[in-house]
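Suppose a classmate hands you a notebook page containing two proteins, each written out with its sequence and a corresponding row of structure tokens. How would you begin to make sense of it? This section walks through that situation. The first entry is reproduced here exactly as it would appear on such a page.
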Amino acid sequence: MRLQSLFLSLAACAAITLPQFASAGEWPAGAESQFLSQCEKAATEKAGAARAKTVCECSDKAITSKLSTAELKQVANSDNGVDAQLQKKMMDAAASCRTSK
């Protein structure tokens, strides 16, 4: 009986957390390193190289956990900039990275 109870608890946890993992996306080939490079270049001017690297790596993890693979492809393939709604979603995802020390 304990095993069945444990199984039900694990199943309930999986059902709750599965949507979080389902929305996590992956960058297209080469796009993640390009994102990190551009991010670090822009952030270094304001925060210094070490802090920029930390913030950008955190931002990358946050963004990939909140955006789908299709959204990350849109970002990577946007020669004319990212649309406002998607840009807001990225900024919201990475907000805690900019404020944490």
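The notebook's second entry, a different protein, reads as follows.
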Amino acid sequence: MKKLAKSKDNAVIFGVLGGLGDYFNIDPVLLRVVVVVATFIGVGSTIPIYLLLALVMPDGDDKSSDSSARSKKSSPFGSVSEKPKRKEAEKIEEEDWSDF
């Protein structure tokens, strides 16, 4: 049986809803939609409960391989991949007005 822990692979903010989804075998996106709708409807306890769970729930195990784990940075908002290098822009001749 899975233990209740924050998800590192399916985290948007702290990984609480991803961990709850893994534990109860529910799609975390569905849980996120329910929490957002409940917050906007006026159920005011959703944000304090989420923050309490973020503090109380233990961190989950990282299921990704070691090579991909090295390329990711840790953050309280989940795993953040490093940005890929940008390509250089191609130089265009200034006298080429063929598109106009």
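A careful reader of the second entry would note: The radius of gyration is 21 Å.
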